[in-house]
Known about the structure:
Blueprint: H1 4-20, E1 24-31, H2 36-54, E2 58-64, H3 68-75, E3 81-88, H4 94-97, E4 111-115, E5 119-123, H5 126-136, E6 140-146, E7 160-164, E8 171-174, H6 176-184, E9 207-217, H7 225-238, E10 251-256
Parallel strand pairs: 1-2, 1-4, 2-3, 6-9
Antiparallel strand pairs: 4-8, 5-9, 7-9, 7-10
Amino acid sequence: MYCQRSYHKIIVFISYIFDIQMKFMYYLACIGSKNLDKKLDILSANLKYIYNDIQCKFDIIVNCYDNYEEVYNYIQQFDFINDKWFYNKPGVLTELFLTNPHNARLSKYDYILFILDDVKIQSMNINSMIALKQIYNIEILSPKVINSTHPFMYALPDNLLTFNNAVEIYSILLTYNDFMRFISLHTIENKWMWGADFLFGHYNIRAGVCFNYNVVHMLPSDSDKSNARELMAKYLKKINYNGDIADIVTVTGAVNVA
């Protein structure tokens, strides 16, 4: 059962831990040339938002599929970021983040924000989201996502925390162990990630969406949908999933966390 007093006590404690020792990583899943100026504007806004929210310096990992020098030089301006790690490789999503050698560095981080390059933070409280992860033992926690594909990511009332079998991946808060479990679901071949985001319940992974906070998907998807469907079908066959993901019950429950 949700306990308001415990929730706020945990937030205060987490704020204290951030002040003295907590290590936070901003993990940019993929960035490159199409609409790069807009993506860099989004990145700048997000980095400043996170810094103002957690009130301490943090680190960044950038998966960059082209325009490496421009992206690298742009990020140097942010003096509130300590370590800046870059991985440059042509490809799409899993082709980069599954092969990034800097993933080996993540074990020293307490929390990781895994986020796409066209997702802008509109409202987010990292301490509050950490508290919800701890209280409800949630491994994959997303804020509400405006302009997401499926209504279960945006069309429910504020103040709800939903428990989900499926969570679209735009921006998710993870521990290191959560991150490792998350990437273990993916394959390099299924580069657009389709299908895996509907299998959290199948793998008994606790996932949820917090409607107190939201991000905005700012740009139209440039994924090759035909190719993504084909790769998803191969992925589901490879993992011996015989059901129809369209039949999955996406939301299994909810609590009020006002």
